[in-house]
Design goal:
alpha+beta; 22% helix; seven-stranded mixed sheet; 293 residues; binds zinc ion
Length: 293
Amino acid sequence: MEPPRKIQVGEFTVAFLTDGIWRNDGGCMFGVVPRELWQREHPADGQNRIRLNLTCPLIMRGGNAIVVDTGIGNRLSAVERKIFDHGEGWLIDGLRMLGMEPGDVTHVLLSHLHFDHCGGIVRRNAAGGLEPAFPRARIFVQRGEIEVARTSSNERLRAAYRHIKECLEPVTGLIEAIDADTALVPGVTAAVTGGHTEHHQVALVSSGGESFVHLADIVPTRSHMRGPWNQAYDLDAIRTMEQKAHYLRLAVGNRWWVSFAHDERVYAARVVEDRGKLALGGSIPVPEGLDGV
Ligand SMILES: [Zn+2]
């Protein structure tokens, strides 16, 4: 494994950590888009799964180290690991290659509480128990997201959050439930988008006239930059489309860095407009060697 790639955003350094490659159903990832269109860029395997990454940006300045989303982590059963073709994960290894320990992470921003974004907030220890993966970090999540995850009786939401007790109970004392847009430190904001889930949020970094945004499940891969290409999981796809149009317009106009939660080829890129279509400008590639159980 190579050391995490970094970009500079004003006074902040952003390093791209990954929890490794996983595979998920292509139809779920592209919703109403016909397979005939998405499979050109995202070939499916025999189980209709496409290759995806688990990108977790680490935003650093001074003593602050903010991890955005935590991937799947190591809490899955052997059967679940096989379903998603996900290995042990590389998040902590990446952190150590930067000369840091999990205890050095000061903040975690969770975009939402689906298992592939919050699973890595806990670690299964040698005795089989779950403990906080980042023991000294304050964990920022929208209060509404926690409430829906914990209390909804809707069948679809129950299934989407069936892991929630395992992930939240070990870190109860570390959770900072927030309401609406919130600055974690000056220059780093958790901004609510809704769309994918009602209280989904993204991470925005602004410093010295430069900006970076991690759009999480609003634009999970480069292909989702197209307006109608949205995940079947989105609870409000129209809202997702409005939010992605808003942020991508800002990114093109102001040369922001944009990172993709699940793109298997690029961690992040500058987005450019080319003959009316959005395309990747300079990009930070995902390295080889992150596959498999
Ligand atoms: Zn999600």
